[in-house]
Queue: 2 jobs
Job 1
Amino acid sequence: MKFVKNHLSIIFPMVAILLGLEFFIVFDRTTKNYEESLRNSYAMLVVSKEEMSIDDFKSWDNHVFKVSEIEKSKIVNRVSSTFDKSLNKSNTLQDKMPNFYSIKLNSYLNKKELEEVKNNFLKSHKITRVETFDTLHQSNYGLFSFIKFAFSTFIVFMTIIGSFLIIKQMEVWNYMHSQRMKVMNIFGASLFLRSKVLINMALIDAIISAIFASIIFYFIQKSWLKDSNIRIIQDNLEKLFTFSDIFILMVAAMVIVMTAVILVVINVKEE
Amino acid sequence: MSNIIFAENLTLWYEENEIIINGANFSINKGDFVFITGPSGSGKSTLLQSFYGKLQPNQGQLNIGGLDMSMIKKKKLQELRSHLGIVFQDYRLINEWTVEDNVVLPLWIAGYSKKVQTEQAQRLLHHVKLSGKEKKYPMELSGGEQQRVGVARALAKNPFLILADEPTGNLDEYSSNVIWDLLENACQQLDTTVVVVTHQIPTVFNIPFKHLSIDQKGTVYEVC
């Protein structure tokens, strides 16, 4: 019972930290994709008196990624029903119409940044109007940012709790192992030999913790998330937990326990 | 006779204004049995601790097995300690290890095979009359039995020097006599040098011994 308790008291906080880490990795991976798709689906509309090139737009603002001209004929066709047919036929409308451009940006900008881009464009006398569609853009971005913040807070909280539990366990290790290490030191054991029992125990616990965290995530991916209706999850289902994550968790667990072991070992006074 | 321990003008202190051992001169030869006595706080244990390098000489010279203890490097100290047998008043056994594991600790450190360790443990536990208690844990034994495990551990690697700090301090008369017998035998049969710090030399002691006494000022006298 004591043996199980000793192991669980390090495995439990380790699993908490590793889950936090895996959540972070997965969240980072999926939100990057989501951010990319939000960026790709977003475009500003710019109206200009003269024809413009991408270089013109880039010279006013370096967030410009792609510029495509909206064909005047398409606009005329869409709105033709509301105009006088004679105007339509004579192509006068098309000739008199300004140029319309759809502009894609190279990153996902907030409302203030979008306003700055708009102002940069309007500094040119050739630009007559800029439509940022910032309300729709901001509602997506706001929700996305909130989820990101809430998730980050949860991960930080989990890591802090896990770290406190590990520090507590380090005190237990110090109490449990210092007497043995001191005795072994008196009989001429090297630092490695003195720490061997603790290192072995810690490494085994690290491996068990990494396996536990991997199993938990595997099941989250395969059962719970698979049936969820959240688009961002469905779009990235395969990326939620990859095989390489097991190694990342394993290495992270080993780094954490070895740091804890080293701190315990150097705190044991030599005799 | 070769010197196992040689001290010249040996001075030890924890703080410079509180000298514990003051300019001690003595030598201990191979096969000697030595008692170090003195009143409480006279520095008996401190002197013994300097023999296994727990503290280094602050002044003078101290040689253990030909090694200068004032200049000894960590690696050399580990090597020296692996050839010493040390017995403590509070036994210092590893409570989560079995009796057998405790006895073979010096062999485990030296990297002996499991087979050699087991054979040596059987032999030593028979010698200290603890056969059949191999798989017990220290806390399941009496104080006298624990100290016998401590002596068996000290003898495990046939050390050239056994250092014992009040080995019978916590024991009853019967258990004390058993410990004295074991230390006598080690000295007589194995020609091991034994240095024992004690309050009182046992009334019945069967082999010749040397006696170093320390007074309250930290001066070491060779009584006999």
Job 2
Amino acid sequence: MTDLQEHFQRTLDRDQRLEPRDWVPDGYRKTMIRQIAQHAHSEIIGMQPEGNWITRAPSLRRKAILLAKVQDEAGHGLYLYSAAETLGAERAELTEKLIDGKQKYSSIFNYPTLNFADVGVIGWLVDGAAICNQVPLCRCSYGPYARAMIRICKEESFHQRQGYELLMTMMRGTDAQRRMVQDATDRWWWPSLMMFGPPDGDSPNTEQSMAWKIKRHTNDELRQRFVDMSVPQAEALGATLPDPSLCWNAERGHYDFGEIDWSEFKQVVRGNGPCNAQRVAHRRAAHDNGAWVREAALAHAAKHSAREEAAA
Amino acid sequence: MSTENAYEALAEAHDDARWAFGTSFDDPLAGVDTTVPSGVDGDDLHAYCLMLGDDALIASHRLQEWCTNAPELEDEVALANIALDLLGQARLLLARAGERGEDYHAFFRDEQEFRNVRLVEPAGGDFGYLIAWLLVFTSWRLALLQRLESSRDPVLAAVAAKGVKEMTYHRDYAARWAVRLGDGTEYSHDRMRAGFEAVWPLVDELFTPHPIERRMAEHGVGVDPATVRAEFDDVLARVLDAATLELPEIPALAGVSGKTGRHGVHTEAMGYLLAELQSIARAHPEAIW
């Protein structure tokens, strides 16, 4: 083992953070870039389903909350792309991979938002599942990502509270509002469970990621934790989770839940979800329509520095 | 709250007001003297607040439409930020426009009751149009708010003081992009020029005072927009010069029997904008959000 390899292993063994200046194996670098990029892409694509309701938000307060949330997601994306850049990737290159379909983002955003309660349920369940996934990442072995996660988790928990509070308010409102909350809960529950990824037996990368201390818990562990926390919250809300098999198992100390439809998960991952094509086309259009603007900014900057040099 | 149990703590009671961003924000003007200044007609003051509030509300709506469509993530953040600031100004001003509250004014008035200038209404356009539009709107509004800071109405003065800080940044953002695009490539130069040409017919209306604006100015409460024209022209001339562009020479859009946005006579785009803005609120008039 070389000195560099030894330093890498020792850092992991001591549970310390790796920093951009440290040597890491190629596989670690690739895995980390892929994971951070997918996370950044998820933030950016995730702006679309919620952004869908900004102009129609039914009160100015809710409009401000939603707009601020979607703006935060753009900020998270920026922050994460910067973390990926510390590993040698470039934002422009990663964006190309996203719009060429060569890199993935969280499949949850390939589902449509169909009524205003979706905004609240995304906060409650989708951000909630994201927090369950991301809190352990605050201790991830790669320093810039771990630190990004601390900040992002704080903001996500803020968003989650806002979402849950919207649902609570709607449940105290009219019958139509309560139906909207239930409808949104019915549609988002199962896709939220899928956010933790395939079952452990079917998750080829988990073992290596855990050895590298990128990942701290398996998919199934995190999924169970999410279910256990969500059930009492649904009860407090007065909404029914759409799973007749949900019940407390005193022996395990956990809730049992029904079988996830993994065929749907695979369909969506493969690109055949309700909104995959739409989401990527939207991102591509924004990127393509902005090309002349980015070119102009570069051209102006070049002219500007040429003029400064000439004047000096 | 530790990050470990953020999710578990969801249903617990808490007193962290920050997260709720206005959740217990029933009266945005709490603490400010809201009595109508002496000698001022209450209806005039309400109508004047609607004018300034509607400008901000509708301009914010058009900026919200840029969300997820910006050329770069930094602009995504900046445009959302400007939209949020304007929305915040609109909320304070609409709350000042009578007892019925901000949401009544935003969601339950009909088109002819809106008092915004027509400039904020048109849909679409590319980034060049957006920047021309934003530069014109922010240069005009910043000049108005700077004068409103010394309004006899403490609410308007407070809204203006907050707004001046915000609009200074907004105008700076627009001016920088106008220079980059005007000076950048041949194509961006053309797009920027086309943007100013598209916006220009609606500029004169910004400086044509409505009788209510005149009366409010006479009472030391409002600003006669005609008085900020010279400053506006100066700002635009300087930015366009740096952007290697010329001021467009395009005639102003006429009104209808002399009536324009401030009178409640709008463009055709306004009906579609309101249909979208008001759709859910009107579908559920009994609901609480």
